Amino acid sequence: MKRYSVFAIAREALRHHTGWERAWASPEPKPSYDVIVIGAGGHGLATAYYLGKNFGITNVAVIEKGWLGGGNTGRNTTIIRSNYLQDPSAAIYEKARSLYETLSQDLNYNVMFSPRGLLMLAQTHHEVRGYMRTVHANLLQGVETEWIGPEQVKRLVPIMNIHGPRYPVLGALLQKRGGTARHDAVAWGYARACSAMGMDIIQQCEVKGVRSEGGLVTGVETTKGFIGTKKLAIVVAGHSGQVAEMAGFRLPVEAVALQALVSEPVKPCIDVVVMANTVHGYMSQSDKGELVIGGGTDSFNNFTQRGSFHHIEETLRALVETFPIISRLKMLRQWGGIVDMTGDRSPILSKTPLGNCFINCGWGTGGFKAIPGSGWAMAELVAKGEPGALAAEFGMDRFREGRFIDESVAAGVAH
Amino acid sequence: MLILECPYCGVKAEETELSPGHEAHLKRFGPGSSDEDFESYMFARKNPKGVHFERWRHSYGCGKWFLAARCTATLEVFGTYPAQTSEPPPDIVARIKARRPEWEGYK
Ligand SMILES: Cc1cc2nc3c(=O)[nH]c(=O)nc-3n(C[C@H](O)[C@H](O)[C@H](O)COP(=O)(O)OP(=O)(O)OC[C@H]3O[C@@H](n4cnc5c(N)ncnc54)[C@H](O)[C@@H]3O)c2cc1C
Ligand SMILES: [Zn+2]
């Protein structure tokens, strides 16, 4: 792999950009691998990357039914934060956030991480108490967050109306090191680094079946034929239930649609990420100037990657009260992704009934921010066969044992 | 936009009038059952990409719970029926088979 640098740009400028190589190879599958990762979203690619980087396992294939990053990774609104309430969540999301800080250097690929700060508005007294509690918890967990009053919120976000008649802003939780990154670049950066380590990223190849013998996976049936493997990692987000069924087990997961939309581009007007969980809306401004807006999930099981219009209406209605200046903006695009929601709304990083098969799913509406940490923890689980400290609490046996990681109550909307 | 006909009051209700209640026909397990049964009743879900049976409530109408057969991959609705059944009624099953010959039947 040729490194990207200022010298590379200068060199290529002089020879009319004829020397750039493809960012990743598109090989045909080999007969077998040490590890197959199903799903080339951020989590699958990061799993492969840290298998190579942290454990020296590079005979790896990442198999993707569409194009890499075309699932939720390329559809999300890119909020990155780690201000969770429960210790296991704070640990893995903070690991991820801190890896994001140096990810561009690590991958030699600009993922445009922008720690512009993140505000979670408190618009009811219940939320005020809730976020103050989170700030105290974060202090103990070593996650830097603070509580700020309404005047300070107004100073940070001048376009905000803090005196809304229905939902006045009573204060906010601020995580200064939270922010956004370029979603496609995260997938592309990991893919390029995996390819450079000799891993095979096989796109347009759908896994149709999981073959096993005596409780161990031997390989996967795909649209490009059978591919053997010593270990299998299932990292397919919205389709986790379908692939788990191929492997013979059932998950505590349901798939629903989550939508987002962007406005026409406007001049810079908001330079932090704002989340308003009571009204189910959040907003940030992209580098192109579009306002990136999202809300809550649609409520019924759905695999169509499109959601219901009335949810968009609800989200915008709420945001217009808080940001009156957006009321005349035109919305440019709207889309949906299929998110995998678990019984306690926390992710699963787990062993499965098959000895050499592992699953990573359930990130639901909020897993973009977790990609580096999740890949890090998943690589350890796959390499050692046992979870390390980051993954230990996220096993799916927690549903049998009643050890839930109850962030849904803590986070309201969890992006 | 999803539209379901309430089998009680006959109103063709669109989704803002309804509340979803997720998987239908769950077999309930309580105290004294095995951990496996209790866990699967509480959490393990079929979550199919295709034919699905669900509970819905006509919240802003007559207020009653009913059941619906729907395709989660296309949002096609096969029919709705009263909640007092422990498995899909034969006319609904026949309608699904006519539309989805490859469907393996209710399991
Ligand atoms: C509208 C929206 C907004 C969001 N906003 C945020 C946010 O602001 N912040 C945040 O942190 N998170 C957000 N999320 C959540 C985040 O996008 C996801 O949690 C995360 O991207 C999941 O990554 P993944 O790699 O697990 O899944 P994906 O990126 O979906 O990758 C899974 C891949 O598996 C492939 N696959 C599935 N089945 C098969 C098969 N049988 N064979 C081969 N390949 C298969 C799919 O094609 C897909 O590419 C949002 C999600 C949506 C939909
Ligand atoms: Zn009714």
From TrEMBL, chain A:
Keywords: Cytoplasm, FAD, Flavoprotein, FMN, Nucleotide-binding, Oxidoreductase
Keyword Electron transport (UniProt): no
Rhodanese domain location: 35-79
Pfam families xrefs: DAO
UniProt catalytic activity: sarcosine + O2 + H2O = formaldehyde + glycine + H2O2; sarcosine + (6S)-5,6,7,8-tetrahydrofolate + O2 = (6R)-5,10-methylene-5,6,7,8-tetrahydrofolate + glycine + H2O2
EC number(s) recorded for this UniProt protein: 1.5.3.24
Domain of life: Bacteria
Keyword Membrane found: no
Chain ranges passing through the membrane: none
Family: Belongs to the SoxB family.
Classification via PANTHER family: FAD-DEPENDENT OXIDOREDUCTASE DOMAIN-CONTAINING PROTEIN 1, SARCOSINE DEHYDROGENASE-RELATED
Protein name per the record: Sarcosine oxidase subunit beta
Automatic annotation (TrEMBL), chain B:
The organism's place on the tree of life at top rank: Bacteria
Pfam (any one): SoxD
InterPro entries (UniProt xref): SoxD, SoxD_sf
Protein name: Heterotetrameric sarcosine oxidase delta subunit
